[in-house]
Amino acid sequence: xxxxxxxxxxxxxxxxxxxxxxxxxxxxxxxxxxxxxxxxxxxxxxxxxxxxxxxxxxxxxxxxxxxxxxxxxxxxxxxxxxxxxxxxxxxxxxxxxxxxxxxxxxxxxxxxxxxxxxxxxxxxxxxxxxxxxxxxxxxxxxxxxxxxxxxxxxxxxxxxxxxxxxxxxxxxxxxxxxxxxxxxxxxxxxxxxxxxxxxxxxxxxxxxxxxxxxxxxxxxxxxxxxxxxxxxxxxxxxxxxxxxxxxxxxxxxxxxxxxxxxxxxxxxxxxxxxxxxxxxxxxxxxxxxxxxxxxxxxxxxxxxxxxxxxxxxxxxxxxxxxxxxxxxxxxxxxxxxxxxxxxxxxxxxxxxxxxxxxxxxxxxxxxxxxxxxxxxxxxxxxxxxxxxxxxxxxxxxxxxxxxxxxxxxxxxxxxxxxxxxxxxxxxxxxxxxxxxxxxxxxxxxxxxxxxxxxxxxxxxxxxxxxxxxxxxxxxxxxxxxxxxxxxxxxxxxxxxxxxxxxxxxxxxxxxx
Amino acid sequence: xxxxxxxxxxxxxxxxxxxxxxxxxxxxxxxxxxxxxxxxxxxxxxxxxxxxxxxxxxxxxxxxxxxxxxxxxxxxxxxxxxxxxxxxxxxxxxxxxxxxxxxxxxxxxxxxxxxxxxxxxxxxxxxxxxxxxxxxxxxxxxxxxxxxxxxxxxxxxxxxxxxxxxxxxxxxxxxxxxxxxxxxxxxxxxxxxxxxxxxxxxxxxxxxxxxxxxxxxxxxxxxxxxxxxxxxxxxxxxxxxxxxxxxxxxxxxxxxxxxxxxxxxxxxxxxxxxxxxxxxxxxxxxxxxxxxxxxxxxxxxxxxxxxxxxxxxxxxxxxxxxxxxxxxxxxxxxxxxxxxxxxxxxxxxxxxxxxxxxxxxxxxxxxxxxxxxxxxxxxxxxxxxxxxxxxxxxxxxxxxxxxxxxxxxxxxxxxxxxxxxxxxxxxxxxxxxxxxxxxxxxxxxxxxxxxxxxxxxxxxxxxxxxxxxxxxxxxxxxxxxxxxxxxxxxxxxxxxxxxxxxxxxxxxxxxxxxxxxxxxxxxxxxxxxxxxxxxxxxxxxxxxxxxxxxxxxxxxxxxxxxxxxxxxxxxxxxxxxxxxxxxxxxxxxxxxxxxxxxxxxxxxxxxxxxxxxxxxxxxxxxxxxxxxxxxxxxxxxxxxxxxxxxxxxxxxxxxxxxxxxxxxxxxxxxxxxxxxxxxxxxxxxxxxxxxxxxxxxxxxxxxxxxxxxxxxxxxxxxxxxxxxxxxxxxxxxxxxxxxxxxxxxxxxxxxxxxxxxxxxxxxxxxxxxxxxxxxxxxxxxxxxxxxxxxxxxxxxxxxxxxxxxxxxxxxxxxxxxxxxxxxxxxxxxxxxxxxxxxxxxxxxxxxxxxxxxxxxxxxxxxxxxxxxxxxxxxxxxxxxxxxxxxxxxxxxxxxxxxxxxxxxxxxxxxxxxxxxxxxxxxxxxxxxxxxxxxxx
Lengths: 512, 936
Known about the structure:
A: alpha+beta; six-stranded antiparallel β-sheet; 9 helices; 12 strands; 41% helix; B: eleven-stranded mixed β-sheet; ten-stranded antiparallel β-sheet; disordered N terminus
């Protein structure tokens, strides 16, 4: 990692600082001195041609590779070596020789331009050493911190993995428990179901008896009503006054039709009216009610007469809540939608009142129900617990699946957020999650990207984080953020830059 | 920058304005068509061949310098005064104004460099039908004034060169009293009592006519979208038609995103000249853009002429081509040429106000027309050499660190650049002349850092001034009453980048002087001598104004904005350039880039083609757009490299760098919401391609600089259409894809996506051209297919030319100042060549004030290359020397001798027989010295 590089740089620096100055043509590095032998013809380093030595550094480019002019600007592709005693030696392009700009700290590049350059190598070397020392200290501390973090991460990871193993074991137990409870529940539900059915059947039978009695009463009443002449018979003519009984609905109850209704007889007495009643009772309108004409609408009640375990009323509001939650998440969705389900809640309630209530369960059945309910509750409870464990396992799995660095040194950043306030915005970096920006003085937040991947160069992949698919730009791509990590002692977002509105918002935090 | 719509997006959020502009093209509805511009509609409704104007020949007065003559409109009896001038240099000026206007009509000041010197005219003959004036014996030119209907014909020998009002479309809407303010017509006429009976009668008739004319819409008020233009002066428009017998090709009248050759406008809108901030402009149409130069060139194999319509109001130009039509001449034209099939182009100019003041430049060569026009409006300002180098711009470089990082990036990737630019975000809340205290807290440190690299910076200074009582510039302008006024007399306020803004009245010379003083180092805080200026939005752009510009009834002193509109940007740049000169005590040459311009703007700096887009067609159009500007004097022209809006592909960006490297003003620029596109962001291969293109530019800087010196001296365009140099070669008349730099370099950039080859036309029978990269020789007068790769920039040097180059490309042009020269001698089939070498300090006026320059001719003939001082009184000692001479089309000599100071020394040389290239090694002579090189 970077810390290691920094340490390496220090050692290089020391060795160069001790370099010894050796005579050689201007601009030639020590390593190539042997190719420039005074008073011998010079062969271009690419071997392309040989020229007299006085054409080396004569300010005219003879070699295609520029090697004959190491100390002048004559060749477009040449390079000049600055020894920079006291600091780092370096190569500069030939075009920077005598261009009036001091490039080499030992001033050797400006030997004929009139530029007044100061030799700054010693000072630079000192600064460099100081900086490197400081960085090394930081790096050392950082290294320790890193070790610590790695250890912690390792521990955490192990803990997590341990926890997961444990939870997976638990899960199996719980799964078994759920299964066992399911069996218990099913076992308990069987007698409950049977008892309920028995109770229901008894109730149905009783209702049938009541209904039959009611029907009988109604028939007797009807017979009396129909028997206009009170002769103890209902005749065809008497029946014909009830046009609502017309079987072909042509508005008239013909004699034949009436007779058919009466079972083919011209008139019927109370006992034979029984069969005729079956023919007419559905349509028959009692004369006493005919005026009000109000046939009670058939009660449409699909509900089983016995209340269920999970009544409607409990369900509905739950649905509603869920919808409201959806609404909250989606700003564009109009608010009114959440009102929709409400009206349906109350309608069935009213109409169910006029049915005679089922008598309460007998004690025996109730005991069975209570017992079954308990097994259900136990089962639900166990299932919920299992789901919770599943969620926990999933979340640990997700966390474990993140690439937190070679040794998990970035684990501690997970589920943290770091803010940086600039003159305009508050930037928020939540590593492995997302980056956002909020105007300092009000305004909505802009998503600058969600966790994408590590995006450093091959050899230091973990130096750069990439967050992608942020809010789109005007006529441009989606925003994305590049986070550069620098070694340090604490974790902070140091700075941001926005090279263009749309791409690459660098938010380098100190790693550790 | 851009216009209103986009700014709205910025207000809402950083850049989430996805919904604001669904279409990426211009919103045409924001801009008027001729039909929506009341005067254009009125004028265009006039029928040809019914001219009511008659010349009153008995009013003819001839003096040494001019002829005057009254014209009468037989419909309304309003009299006009015609003034005719013969100007030195083969020009004729025709001025028409009302004889007795109710109020003075606007005449454009400050555009002409001086009162053009005249030549005497003489009366050749006169009768009832007309007058014949001599325009000079030398060319046998005559000016024929026909009386009924009025008409002018300019004739040379037996040929009619140009006819005015030949179609009878002269129309002059005289000033009149408004009907409802005319309750007491006596009062109005009383003033005219002194003018006698006849005038009174006429006045009455005028009034009657006026009443009749007032029935037409838009004469006293005009509403476009939500903007109402109150027109207290009523209708004031003018129009005149010109016929050009024998002409099929007309050019000029920029700025339009259209082909070089102007199209006929029959059935469409006329070309419009009205400086406008057009958001995402469309290509290939006559819509107005940011600048206006009312100059048209007419060219045929026989002759080149020019028309300069000196009017700064909204102007429309109709062009029709009538190849079969022949002008009907009066009796006096009995020597009309016989050919009846002569092609002819008719043009008609319509302006909203002012007077008719037209300069007819009679050529006859293209070069003559440039000279003539330059004598009227001046030549291209001579830019500092750095301005001809590469410019790196973006909206915006965010802060000082960003600037530093970009500067460093160029060095890291070894790409030269001279200027880095700061757009509007650098200022504190768009208060120009200030710096954002957070992003640019220490501008001088930043500028010093750039100066240490011998580079420069440009910061934007727009003419809209934030209305803010804590802003010094605003307070001073308000205190001195320098703002443009609205129609009610209050300070005009419009909406622009800073929000509510005032617009200084740049037509006021005191205002301009004050503005110039604001560039003084002690006034413009944080500025240094390497900070230069960019004037954007100077059409002026007013986001909430009609057509995104200023209300026409706003007031500049006594004049309406209507009268001066197209001058506003011209004056802004004039005042800014003056400021940059003054801050240096008159020593340093200024560099100011402007978006809006007018005739004469060439005197003040550079122009770019505004907010283009990263599209191949926009790359292509950069050629005809800059060629058109060059034809009318503005040579320092460029298009945003890469395209301003949208994001270029790497290929497009590379091709644009390659093209821009061979166009005069070479600046990359990008919109705020586009991804970064510094040259090194597209992978090493593309970085290398861009580096190479930029390096080619730097190597050629001596040639570019010399071309601009010539442009400054003579007014010849730097970037030229081929027909300028090959006026008889009709194949060159409509070329939009290649051009010349000076006369010696021909450029045919690759502007097609995925191109495998281009076909370049090499002109000139019996001439040869050399590929500048391979030195391969090609014959002229042929279309040449050139296979291309991504690195190809097809450029050819004309055989017969000598071009100086500096092959040691460095970080910036300043770094190359003292570097040696390489001469590229390209021999023609006669084995001769000519060229020049111009050198000065590159940035001061000393070349002019102290004659501190080197200007030498270079001649190759009879196997001898020699140089001669073209200006013996000049003096400059330069450390530069001649490093190398490359002779193309040479044969292998037996030896080469250099003669200088009476000494003869043999030179080493190399001969490449396969390409016939002779390279002379290190002559080593000073560029200012006399010397000869002889090939033995």
